[in-house]
Amino acid sequence: MTDTNESKLAEALAAIRDASDAAALDAQRVTALGKQGWVSQLLKTLGGMSPEQRQSEGPRIQSIRAQVSDAIAARKAEIDAAALEAQLASETLDLTLPAPETPRGSVHPVSQVMDELAEIFADMGFSVATGPEIEDDWHNFTALNMAETHPARAMHDTFYFPDRDAEGNRMLLRTHTSPVQIRSMVAQGAPVRIIAPGRVYRSDSDATHTPMFHQIEGLVVDEGIHLGHLKWTLETFLKAFFERDDIVLRLRPSYFPFTEPSVEVDVGWKDVKGRRVLGGDGDAPGHGWMELLGSGVINRRVIEFAGLDPDKWQGFAFGVGVDRLAMLKYGMDDLRAFFDGDPRWLAHYGFSPFDQPTLSGGVGARA
To answer: What value does the mean pLDDT take over residues 39-68?
Structure first.
């Protein structure tokens, strides 16, 4: 190692020790180890040396680089420690102040609507019934008067399992909560007044349909039940849920295998600032009709499948999508966002864990 290199090394080490802050230290690093730094230039000279020269000079030059690198790392640790100590000395923490608010989740709109519906129907004398999500073919289709050739049984609508139950019935993910109605009638007989909320599954996916969604169905079986009872029940339910006394229904004849007669239920609505708002007569100026749910008087064959006498017992049933009710009440426009789990989406629509628009706490507080 030449005297010149030893002198440069001594000067560099002294400058590194005297660096007062991170910027000054980085300047010394560039001077020595940068692309044009003097240590880097020394390393380049090894390429022009003979093997014997590299063997003797290489370790010395590498030693210079190591000493400079170690000195920079040591001084950086000292500067960082001094900066931290200064920061701790200058900052104070007032332990009497409340802790900063931490992110938290909130009630999901589907859970919210489920709670609202349960409370509304409880006031009308309904109880909540549940059943298995993995169903057999008999409860899901046959007992509901759906023929073997009914399109809903097709693979493109229904998620089937390869296995069958002990009686040979095909197993599937339920396509509606109607099997709960059958199980309730078989288990408890009549009279019966239930709602059956829960997850259902169909092979469908777009902005308003998902392979898994939520549905609530209602069932009333008693003596002398007719369409008038059905219409009153639906009007009372929708007025309470949407908190409007001007809900107007239009019942249109339809067809479902499990009800006879069957009716589609339309609701009057109008556009308010780009949002569908239910209320008013659909035939009034500026209004329209929107199909909301299906319903009807229970088919005699379904009553018989449940082991009841259709000459003594009559009833009605209805079904509606819980997700759709949430979209209409809270102004949501894309069903797929319900399953993203994004708290920003919940916050946008005003769902808070401490401000829940439930019936017990003020239904529709953010409607």
So the answer is: 81
